[in-house]
Design a protein that fits this description.
Helices cover about 40% and strands about 30% of the residues. With about 200 residues, the protein is an alpha+beta fold. The protein has two domains: about 140 residues, Bifunctional nuclease domain, CATH 3.10.690.10; about 40 residues. A hairpin with a 2-residue loop joins strand 4 and strand 5.
Length: about 200
Amino acid sequence: MDQTVELEILGLSSNHSQSGSFTLVMGEVGGIRRLPIVIGMFEAQAIAIEIEKIIPNRPMTHDLFKSFSSNFNYSIDHILISDMREGVFYAKIVCKNSSKTVEIDARPSDAIAIAVRFDASIYCSKKVMSEAGIEFNEEDERREHEKSGKTKKTPASSSSKSADTLKDFTLDKLNQLLDKAISNEDYEKAARIRDEINRRN
């Protein structure tokens, strides 16, 4: 792992330049560089619901991958964002069982959605980090927030207007709404309701 950098997920934000997409911001563990990766709505939602620990009523694709690998005694050792060509990132999922290790090519968004389900480490090659990483410190972040005047929005976060509406419901009603949202696979709404329930407990 000498030629790699360990990353952690810092957040998801709406991508204003590409409708329906999100920017996944990865941070260098113990460093100041960040690696922003543009991903689709489905993958953003898959990452967000696992981070938020929302359990869908039916397994999503990445949950299915976890069940499949676990049943065949494979675990995810780590994922590696291995390359970037013409602005496109490439990744590998490193799986292992008792006798062998296998590398599977994947899109970084899918690899990260799987990594969070296995609690696996996420790495990036030093080459990719040097080419695509952005140095960012707390002062830069403060200035960026002041300049944009906008708050981060993730697939599992809410607007204040929605949160205000939820305050009007009883706890029983919120639990009913939560069941319904999960049943409808509306994970954004489920996360908002769950947050309101947690605030009251």
